[in-house]
C-alpha cells in the first residue's frame, strides 16, 4: 500500500483579496505570500516519508514543489482545467463580459465558457498522470497540482485551499480517498521562522538583525519574569524573529502582519503590525518586541536615544518628524517602565 499526497499549489502572484480565473492556459508564478506558503511544506509531518515529488508543468506548481525537492519531476496531465475565454481574467472582468454564463454557472457548473475543458476530460488526464507518477516511483509520493485537477480525483472543491493536502491510499492502480484538503497549522520554531525569512527574500544582514532582536527580547523576558511579569515568551521570540519579514517592501509592518495572518498566525501578526507603532504603551508582548527592535541597529545593540538621534536626520517633513517624536516617546516610556520594574537600567 502506498500513499499519494495531492498538494494544491501555493498562491500565485495575484492581488490578495481578488478572485481570478487562473486556469491551465495561464502560467503565473507564485507571489511572495505563495512562496511563504510553499516554504512551510517541508515542515508538514505527513510529508516526511515522501520519496518522490511530482508537479504539473505550470510554474506555480513547480515553485510550490521546490522547497520539498530541489528537482521535482514534471508530468503532463497534472495541470489546472483550461477555462477557454475566461482563462487568466479577474472575475470582475468575467462578470462584466459574460454576465449570463457567470450567473448560470452558479447553479450548473457543467456550463463552460468557449474553449474550456470539460470536467470529464480533466478527470481522465489527471487519472492517467497519477498512474504515470506511481509507475515512475516507489514508496509514498507527493504530487503538486491544481484545484480543479485535484477535485476531479477527490470529488470536492470547496476545501481545497492553497497548499492543502489531500491523501489517497493506493493499491496497485486503484486508490481510495482518505482525506481531502487538510491545511496544516505548524507550530513555529526557529527553523520554520528562518525558512519564512528566506522565502520572503531576507538577506544575511536582515536575518542577523532579526536574530539579534529576538535574543534581546528573550533576555528582557527573562529579567521581567524574575520580577513577576509573566509574558508569552515563545510568542515574543517568534514575533521578534519575524518582525521584519516584509522589510524590503513598502509599509512593511502592515504587509508582514497581513502575510502572517494569511499563513495562520494571527497573534504573531498583531505583534508584527505594532513593531513600529504599538497600540498602547502598556508593557505587553508587542511592547517587548518594539523596544528590542529599537535597541538594535543592524545586528548591534545601541542605546535607544542614540538610535533615535541617528534616524532623526531622515525625517524630511513635519509629518515624519511628528511620527519620529511619537515613536521616541513611546520607546522612552517603555524603557523607563522596564528599568523601574527591574530597579536598574536594563536598557
Structure explained in plain terms:
By secondary structure, this protein is α/β, with parallel strands linked by helices. Helix content is 47%, strand content 12%. It has 2 domains: 2-182, 3-Layer(aba) Sandwich (Rossmann fold), CATH 3.40.50.1240; 190-342, Hypothetical protein af1432. The longest helix is centred in the last third of the chain and has 25 residues, at 318-342.
Keywords, please?
about 350 residues, alpha/beta, Rossmann fold, Hypothetical protein af1432, 2 domains, six-stranded mixed β-sheet, two-stranded antiparallel ribbon, 14 helices, 10 strands, about 45% helix, elongated
Q: Helices, strands, pairings?
A:
Elements: E1 2-8, E2 20-21, H1 32-40, E3 52-55, H2 59-65, E4 73-74, E5 89-90, H3 91-97, H4 99-105, H5 119-135, E6 141-145, H6 147-154, E7 165-171, E8 174-182, H7 190-199, H8 204-226, H9 233-242, H10 252-263, H11 266-273, H12 285-294, E9 296-297, E10 300-301, H13 304-312, H14 318-342
Parallel strand pairs: 1-6, 3-4, 3-6
Antiparallel strand pairs: 1-7, 2-5, 7-8, 9-10
How many separate domains make up the residues?
2
Strand line-up across the major sheet: 4-3-6-1-7-8
> Percent of residues in helical segments?
40-55%
Cα shape: elongated
Average pLDDT reading: 94
Quaternary:
single chain
The termini sit apart by 60 Å
CATH class of the largest domain: Alpha Beta
Largest sheet: 6 strands, mixed
pLDDT below 50 for ≥5 consecutive residues: which ranges? none
- What do we call the CATH homologous superfamily of the largest domain? Phosphoglycerate mutase-like
- CATH second-level architecture of the largest domain: 3-Layer(aba) Sandwich
